Amino acid sequence: MAPSLDDVGELASLSVLGSLRQRYEGLEFYRDLWWSMGDAGLFGMTVPEEYGGSGGGTRALGQAVSRFAHDGCDMGLTLSWITHLSLCIKSIELFGTRKQKRAYLPKLVSGEWVGAAAVSEPGTGAHPAGIETKAEKKDGGFVLNGKKLYITDGSVADLLVVVAATGESEGGMKELTAFLVETGAPGFSSSRMDLNFLKTSPHAELTFTDMQLADSAVLGAPGEGHSMASRSAFARERSLVLAAGVGLFTAAAQSCGERLVKKHGSFDLEGKEASSWIHHMSALEAYESLSSGLLEAAFDDLERWRKSIDLLIYLGISYAKWGIWLGDFVVKNQIEPSFPLDIILNDMKLVLIGEGMLFKEGRKRYIQPYEA
Protein backbone atom coordinates (compact mmCIF):
# COMPACT_ATOMS: atom_id res chain seq x y z
CA MET A 1 0.00 0.00 0.00
CA ALA A 2 1.27 3.46 -0.89
CA PRO A 3 2.24 5.68 2.06
CA SER A 4 -0.14 8.49 3.01
CA LEU A 5 1.08 12.08 3.08
CA ASP A 6 0.82 11.98 6.87
CA ASP A 7 3.10 8.92 6.91
CA VAL A 8 5.58 10.69 4.66
CA GLY A 9 5.45 13.81 6.83
CA GLU A 10 5.99 11.88 10.05
CA LEU A 11 9.05 10.07 8.69
CA ALA A 12 10.48 13.33 7.33
CA SER A 13 9.86 15.45 10.42
CA LEU A 14 11.13 12.87 12.90
CA SER A 15 13.85 10.78 11.27
CA VAL A 16 15.04 13.10 8.49
CA LEU A 17 14.88 16.50 10.16
CA GLY A 18 15.86 14.95 13.48
CA SER A 19 19.20 13.76 12.08
CA LEU A 20 19.75 16.48 9.47
CA ARG A 21 22.33 18.59 11.27
CA GLN A 22 24.44 15.58 12.22
CA ARG A 23 24.31 14.10 8.71
CA TYR A 24 25.02 17.45 7.07
CA GLU A 25 28.05 18.23 9.20
CA GLY A 26 29.36 14.66 8.98
CA LEU A 27 28.77 14.38 5.20
CA GLU A 28 27.00 11.11 5.93
CA PHE A 29 24.56 8.93 4.04
CA TYR A 30 22.62 6.90 6.62
CA ARG A 31 21.78 3.43 5.30
CA ASP A 32 19.37 2.79 8.16
CA LEU A 33 17.45 5.95 7.23
CA TRP A 34 17.40 4.79 3.60
CA TRP A 35 16.02 1.43 4.71
CA SER A 36 13.31 3.24 6.68
CA MET A 37 12.32 5.10 3.52
CA GLY A 38 12.11 1.77 1.70
CA ASP A 39 10.05 0.20 4.49
CA ALA A 40 7.67 3.17 4.30
CA GLY A 41 7.06 2.45 0.62
CA LEU A 42 8.61 5.65 -0.77
CA PHE A 43 10.66 3.94 -3.46
CA GLY A 44 7.87 1.85 -4.95
CA MET A 45 5.09 4.40 -5.24
CA THR A 46 4.78 4.04 -9.02
CA VAL A 47 6.19 0.49 -9.35
CA PRO A 48 3.86 -2.48 -10.08
CA GLU A 49 2.97 -4.65 -7.11
CA GLU A 50 4.61 -7.76 -8.63
CA TYR A 51 8.00 -6.09 -8.10
CA GLY A 52 7.30 -4.89 -4.56
CA GLY A 53 5.75 -1.52 -5.33
CA SER A 54 2.29 -0.11 -4.67
CA GLY A 55 1.46 0.79 -8.27
CA GLY A 56 0.31 4.30 -7.39
CA GLY A 57 -0.05 7.36 -9.57
CA THR A 58 2.41 10.08 -10.49
CA ARG A 59 0.47 12.92 -8.85
CA ALA A 60 0.64 11.16 -5.47
CA LEU A 61 4.40 10.70 -5.93
CA GLY A 62 4.87 14.41 -6.60
CA GLN A 63 2.87 15.32 -3.50
CA ALA A 64 4.90 12.89 -1.40
CA VAL A 65 8.23 14.27 -2.64
CA SER A 66 7.08 17.83 -1.94
CA ARG A 67 5.90 16.90 1.58
CA PHE A 68 9.16 15.05 2.28
CA ALA A 69 11.22 18.09 1.27
CA HIS A 70 8.97 20.41 3.28
CA ASP A 71 8.92 18.44 6.53
CA GLY A 72 12.47 17.06 6.33
CA CYS A 73 14.15 20.26 5.05
CA ASP A 74 16.72 17.99 3.40
CA MET A 75 17.05 18.60 -0.33
CA GLY A 76 20.08 16.33 -0.49
CA LEU A 77 18.27 13.21 0.69
CA THR A 78 15.23 14.22 -1.37
CA LEU A 79 17.47 14.37 -4.44
CA SER A 80 18.82 10.91 -3.60
CA TRP A 81 15.24 9.58 -3.55
CA ILE A 82 14.47 11.32 -6.84
CA THR A 83 17.59 9.92 -8.50
CA HIS A 84 16.98 6.42 -7.16
CA LEU A 85 13.39 6.29 -8.37
CA SER A 86 13.32 8.38 -11.55
CA LEU A 87 16.71 7.55 -13.06
CA CYS A 88 17.28 3.97 -11.94
CA ILE A 89 14.08 2.24 -10.85
CA LYS A 90 11.83 3.76 -13.51
CA SER A 91 14.38 3.15 -16.28
CA ILE A 92 14.47 -0.54 -15.41
CA GLU A 93 10.69 -0.69 -15.11
CA LEU A 94 10.21 0.89 -18.54
CA PHE A 95 13.06 -0.61 -20.55
CA GLY A 96 14.36 -3.63 -18.65
CA THR A 97 13.80 -7.27 -19.52
CA ARG A 98 11.62 -9.33 -17.25
CA LYS A 99 14.77 -10.98 -15.88
CA GLN A 100 16.34 -7.57 -15.10
CA LYS A 101 13.17 -6.39 -13.40
CA ARG A 102 12.99 -9.49 -11.23
CA ALA A 103 16.67 -9.27 -10.32
CA TYR A 104 16.86 -5.60 -9.44
CA LEU A 105 13.51 -3.92 -8.76
CA PRO A 106 12.67 -5.70 -5.46
CA LYS A 107 16.09 -4.77 -4.02
CA LEU A 108 15.75 -1.16 -5.15
CA VAL A 109 12.14 -0.76 -4.05
CA SER A 110 12.83 -2.16 -0.58
CA GLY A 111 15.84 0.11 -0.06
CA GLU A 112 18.22 -2.82 0.24
CA TRP A 113 20.10 -1.32 -2.70
CA VAL A 114 20.77 2.28 -3.73
CA GLY A 115 20.37 3.04 -7.43
CA ALA A 116 21.83 5.90 -9.46
CA ALA A 117 22.59 6.95 -13.03
CA ALA A 118 25.98 7.81 -14.53
CA VAL A 119 25.79 10.06 -17.58
CA SER A 120 27.71 13.35 -16.94
CA GLU A 121 31.40 13.48 -17.88
CA PRO A 122 34.35 15.89 -17.54
CA GLY A 123 34.07 18.93 -19.78
CA THR A 124 30.79 17.96 -21.43
CA GLY A 125 28.20 17.31 -18.75
CA ALA A 126 25.42 15.08 -20.00
CA HIS A 127 25.57 16.20 -23.65
CA PRO A 128 25.43 13.01 -25.74
CA ALA A 129 27.99 14.21 -28.32
CA GLY A 130 30.65 14.59 -25.63
CA ILE A 131 30.37 11.21 -23.92
CA GLU A 132 33.77 9.48 -24.02
CA THR A 133 33.08 6.49 -21.77
CA LYS A 134 33.22 3.45 -24.04
CA ALA A 135 31.85 -0.06 -23.90
CA GLU A 136 33.70 -2.14 -26.49
CA LYS A 137 32.11 -5.33 -27.72
CA LYS A 138 34.01 -8.45 -26.72
CA ASP A 139 33.18 -12.14 -26.82
CA GLY A 140 30.13 -12.67 -24.64
CA GLY A 141 29.76 -9.05 -23.58
CA PHE A 142 31.43 -5.65 -23.30
CA VAL A 143 34.46 -4.02 -21.69
CA LEU A 144 33.68 -0.68 -20.04
CA ASN A 145 36.24 2.13 -19.66
CA GLY A 146 35.80 5.79 -18.76
CA LYS A 147 35.00 8.41 -16.14
CA LYS A 148 31.82 10.07 -14.90
CA LEU A 149 31.54 13.24 -12.78
CA TYR A 150 29.06 14.73 -10.30
CA ILE A 151 27.10 11.50 -10.03
CA THR A 152 24.44 11.74 -7.33
CA ASP A 153 24.94 8.88 -4.84
CA GLY A 154 27.78 7.55 -6.97
CA SER A 155 29.88 6.61 -3.94
CA VAL A 156 27.08 4.70 -2.19
CA ALA A 157 25.18 3.20 -5.13
CA ASP A 158 24.89 -0.55 -5.53
CA LEU A 159 23.53 -0.34 -9.08
CA LEU A 160 24.15 2.21 -11.83
CA VAL A 161 22.50 2.97 -15.14
CA VAL A 162 25.58 3.88 -17.19
CA VAL A 163 25.37 5.49 -20.63
CA ALA A 164 28.42 4.67 -22.78
CA ALA A 165 29.45 4.89 -26.43
CA THR A 166 29.31 1.53 -28.22
CA GLY A 167 30.21 2.72 -31.73
CA GLU A 168 28.94 5.10 -34.38
CA SER A 169 25.74 5.26 -36.36
CA GLU A 170 25.65 5.39 -40.17
CA GLY A 171 25.47 9.17 -39.97
CA GLY A 172 28.68 9.39 -37.96
CA MET A 173 26.91 10.11 -34.67
CA LYS A 174 27.92 8.33 -31.49
CA GLU A 175 25.92 5.23 -30.72
CA LEU A 176 25.02 5.38 -27.03
CA THR A 177 23.87 2.38 -25.03
CA ALA A 178 22.61 2.11 -21.44
CA PHE A 179 24.02 -0.59 -19.17
CA LEU A 180 23.10 -1.89 -15.73
CA VAL A 181 26.34 -1.94 -13.75
CA GLU A 182 26.74 -3.46 -10.29
CA THR A 183 29.30 -1.41 -8.38
CA GLY A 184 30.60 -4.42 -6.45
CA ALA A 185 32.11 -5.89 -9.62
CA PRO A 186 35.86 -5.61 -10.40
CA GLY A 187 36.93 -2.55 -12.37
CA PHE A 188 34.76 0.01 -10.58
CA SER A 189 35.98 2.74 -8.25
CA SER A 190 34.53 5.97 -6.88
CA SER A 191 35.71 9.01 -4.96
CA ARG A 192 33.43 11.49 -3.25
CA MET A 193 33.47 15.03 -4.63
CA ASP A 194 33.55 17.93 -2.20
CA LEU A 195 30.41 20.02 -2.82
CA ASN A 196 29.56 22.87 -0.46
CA PHE A 197 25.84 22.07 -0.64
CA LEU A 198 23.57 18.99 -0.82
CA LYS A 199 25.95 17.43 1.68
CA THR A 200 23.59 14.60 2.62
CA SER A 201 23.56 13.41 -0.98
CA PRO A 202 27.07 12.16 -1.82
CA HIS A 203 28.22 13.16 -5.30
CA ALA A 204 31.13 11.28 -6.77
CA GLU A 205 33.62 10.82 -9.58
CA LEU A 206 33.35 7.30 -11.00
CA THR A 207 36.01 5.36 -12.86
CA PHE A 208 35.45 2.22 -14.94
CA THR A 209 38.64 0.32 -15.76
CA ASP A 210 38.38 -2.72 -18.04
CA MET A 211 35.09 -3.58 -16.37
CA GLN A 212 33.57 -6.76 -17.77
CA LEU A 213 29.88 -6.59 -18.62
CA ALA A 214 27.73 -9.41 -19.95
CA ASP A 215 25.39 -8.90 -22.89
CA SER A 216 22.57 -9.16 -20.37
CA ALA A 217 23.75 -5.88 -18.78
CA VAL A 218 22.38 -3.87 -21.72
CA LEU A 219 19.29 -1.92 -20.67
CA GLY A 220 16.83 -1.70 -23.54
CA ALA A 221 18.15 -1.78 -27.09
CA PRO A 222 21.79 -1.12 -28.08
CA GLY A 223 22.20 2.36 -29.49
CA GLU A 224 19.17 3.80 -27.73
CA GLY A 225 20.85 4.82 -24.50
CA HIS A 226 20.18 8.51 -25.02
CA SER A 227 16.85 8.62 -26.81
CA MET A 228 15.31 5.85 -24.70
CA ALA A 229 16.92 5.96 -21.27
CA SER A 230 18.85 9.19 -20.72
CA ARG A 231 16.41 11.69 -22.22
CA SER A 232 13.28 10.24 -20.60
CA ALA A 233 15.09 9.92 -17.26
CA PHE A 234 16.05 13.60 -17.49
CA ALA A 235 12.39 14.48 -17.89
CA ARG A 236 11.37 12.53 -14.79
CA GLU A 237 14.23 13.80 -12.64
CA ARG A 238 13.84 17.49 -13.49
CA SER A 239 10.09 17.37 -13.00
CA LEU A 240 10.39 15.73 -9.58
CA VAL A 241 13.01 18.29 -8.53
CA LEU A 242 10.45 21.01 -9.34
CA ALA A 243 7.92 19.27 -7.09
CA ALA A 244 10.47 19.01 -4.28
CA GLY A 245 11.40 22.67 -4.70
CA VAL A 246 7.87 23.79 -3.89
CA GLY A 247 8.00 21.92 -0.59
CA LEU A 248 11.45 23.22 0.31
CA PHE A 249 10.60 26.83 -0.61
CA THR A 250 7.42 26.70 1.44
CA ALA A 251 9.33 25.44 4.48
CA ALA A 252 11.88 28.23 4.05
CA ALA A 253 9.19 30.92 3.72
CA GLN A 254 7.35 29.66 6.81
CA SER A 255 10.58 29.68 8.80
CA CYS A 256 11.32 33.26 7.70
CA GLY A 257 7.81 34.42 8.59
CA GLU A 258 7.91 32.82 12.03
CA ARG A 259 11.34 34.28 12.81
CA LEU A 260 10.27 37.73 11.67
CA VAL A 261 7.29 37.62 14.03
CA LYS A 262 9.48 36.41 16.87
CA LYS A 263 11.94 39.24 16.27
CA HIS A 264 9.47 42.11 15.88
CA GLY A 265 6.40 40.79 17.67
CA SER A 266 4.32 40.99 14.48
CA PHE A 267 4.53 40.33 10.77
CA ASP A 268 5.03 44.00 10.00
CA LEU A 269 5.38 44.09 6.23
CA GLU A 270 3.81 47.06 4.50
CA GLY A 271 3.57 48.59 1.04
CA LYS A 272 5.96 47.12 -1.53
CA GLU A 273 7.39 44.64 0.96
CA ALA A 274 3.95 43.21 1.68
CA SER A 275 3.14 43.12 -2.02
CA SER A 276 6.37 41.29 -2.77
CA TRP A 277 5.71 38.73 -0.04
CA ILE A 278 2.18 38.07 -1.31
CA HIS A 279 3.46 37.78 -4.87
CA HIS A 280 6.09 35.20 -3.97
CA MET A 281 3.77 33.16 -1.75
CA SER A 282 1.13 33.02 -4.47
CA ALA A 283 3.87 32.00 -6.90
CA LEU A 284 4.44 28.88 -4.78
CA GLU A 285 0.82 27.88 -5.31
CA ALA A 286 1.22 28.39 -9.06
CA TYR A 287 4.48 26.42 -9.13
CA GLU A 288 2.80 23.50 -7.39
CA SER A 289 -0.04 23.40 -9.89
CA LEU A 290 2.19 23.77 -12.95
CA SER A 291 4.83 21.30 -11.79
CA SER A 292 2.16 18.69 -11.09
CA GLY A 293 1.03 18.65 -14.71
CA LEU A 294 4.61 18.62 -15.96
CA LEU A 295 5.45 15.69 -13.69
CA GLU A 296 2.53 13.61 -14.95
CA ALA A 297 3.62 14.25 -18.52
CA ALA A 298 7.21 13.23 -17.73
CA PHE A 299 6.14 9.90 -16.26
CA ASP A 300 3.11 9.08 -18.36
CA ASP A 301 3.37 10.89 -21.71
CA LEU A 302 6.92 11.77 -22.70
CA GLU A 303 5.92 13.32 -26.01
CA ARG A 304 3.59 15.72 -24.19
CA TRP A 305 6.45 16.54 -21.79
CA ARG A 306 8.73 17.40 -24.70
CA LYS A 307 6.09 19.77 -26.02
CA SER A 308 6.02 21.36 -22.56
CA ILE A 309 9.73 22.19 -22.44
CA ASP A 310 8.80 25.89 -22.41
CA LEU A 311 7.07 25.33 -19.08
CA LEU A 312 10.18 23.64 -17.69
CA ILE A 313 12.31 26.62 -18.76
CA TYR A 314 9.84 29.07 -17.22
CA LEU A 315 9.67 27.20 -13.90
CA GLY A 316 13.42 26.66 -13.68
CA ILE A 317 14.23 30.34 -14.17
CA SER A 318 11.36 31.39 -11.88
CA TYR A 319 12.57 29.08 -9.12
CA ALA A 320 16.02 30.66 -9.26
CA LYS A 321 14.57 34.15 -8.99
CA TRP A 322 12.40 33.01 -6.08
CA GLY A 323 15.43 31.60 -4.24
CA ILE A 324 17.40 34.81 -4.77
CA TRP A 325 14.46 36.86 -3.48
CA LEU A 326 14.25 34.83 -0.29
CA GLY A 327 17.98 35.17 0.33
CA ASP A 328 17.68 38.94 -0.06
CA PHE A 329 14.62 38.94 2.23
CA VAL A 330 16.61 37.21 4.98
CA VAL A 331 19.46 39.71 4.72
CA LYS A 332 17.23 42.79 4.47
CA ASN A 333 15.16 41.84 7.49
CA GLN A 334 18.20 40.64 9.47
CA ILE A 335 16.71 37.20 10.02
CA GLU A 336 19.07 34.80 11.74
CA PRO A 337 19.51 31.86 9.31
CA SER A 338 19.94 29.25 12.01
CA PHE A 339 19.01 25.57 11.67
CA PRO A 340 17.30 24.37 9.54
CA LEU A 341 16.93 27.58 7.52
CA ASP A 342 20.69 27.80 7.04
CA ILE A 343 20.77 24.37 5.38
CA ILE A 344 17.72 25.11 3.23
CA LEU A 345 19.24 28.35 1.94
CA ASN A 346 22.53 26.59 1.19
CA ASP A 347 20.85 23.76 -0.71
CA MET A 348 18.93 26.24 -2.86
CA LYS A 349 22.14 26.44 -4.91
CA LEU A 350 20.76 23.41 -6.75
CA VAL A 351 18.05 25.67 -8.15
CA LEU A 352 20.63 28.14 -9.44
CA ILE A 353 22.56 25.38 -11.21
CA GLY A 354 19.38 24.12 -12.84
CA GLU A 355 18.46 27.64 -13.90
CA GLY A 356 21.79 28.02 -15.67
CA MET A 357 21.21 24.88 -17.71
CA LEU A 358 17.68 25.87 -18.66
CA PHE A 359 18.74 29.41 -19.51
CA LYS A 360 21.00 27.97 -22.23
CA GLU A 361 18.05 26.10 -23.71
CA GLY A 362 15.90 29.21 -23.49
CA ARG A 363 18.58 31.24 -25.26
CA LYS A 364 18.58 28.78 -28.16
CA ARG A 365 14.82 28.99 -28.50
CA TYR A 366 14.12 32.67 -27.90
CA ILE A 367 17.29 34.69 -28.59
CA GLN A 368 19.39 32.93 -31.21
CA PRO A 369 16.71 33.12 -33.94
CA TYR A 370 17.14 36.90 -33.89
CA GLU A 371 20.93 36.64 -34.03
CA ALA A 372 21.03 34.58 -37.25
Task: Tell me the distance between the termini.
Answer: 55 Å
Low-confidence stretches: none
Report strand order across the widest sheet: 1-4-5-8
Supply the number of structural domains. Answer: 3
Rg, rounded, reads: 21 Å
In total, the number of strands is 8
Order of H and E elements:
HHHHHEEEEEEEEHHHHHHH
List keywords for this structure.
four-stranded antiparallel beta sheet; 12 helices; alpha+beta; globular; four-stranded mixed beta sheet; 16% strand; Butyryl-Coa Dehydrogenase, subunit A, domain 1; Butyryl-CoA Dehydrogenase, subunit A, domain 2; 372 residues
Short synopsis of the structure:
With 372 residues, this protein is α+β, with helices and mostly antiparallel strands.
Walk me through what this model shows.
By secondary structure, the chain is α+β, with helices and mostly antiparallel strands. It folds into 3 domains: 5-114, Butyryl-Coa Dehydrogenase, subunit A, domain 1; 117-222, Butyryl-CoA Dehydrogenase, subunit A, domain 2; 227-366. 56% of the residues lie in helices and 16% in strands. It has 12 helices and 8 strands. It has helices spanning 5-26, 31-39, 58-72, 75-95, 98-110, 225-264, 271-300, 302-306, 309-332, 341-347, 349-366, 368-371; strands spanning 115-118, 134-138, 141-152, 159-168, 174-182, 188-192, 203-214, 218-219. The strands form 2 sheets. The chain has a 4-stranded mixed β-sheet, covered by helices on one side. Strands 2-3-7-6 form a 4-stranded antiparallel β-sheet, covered by helices on one side. Helix 6 (225-264) runs parallel beside helix 9. The longest helix is centred in the middle third of the chain and has 40 residues, at 225-264. It starts with a helix and ends with a helix.
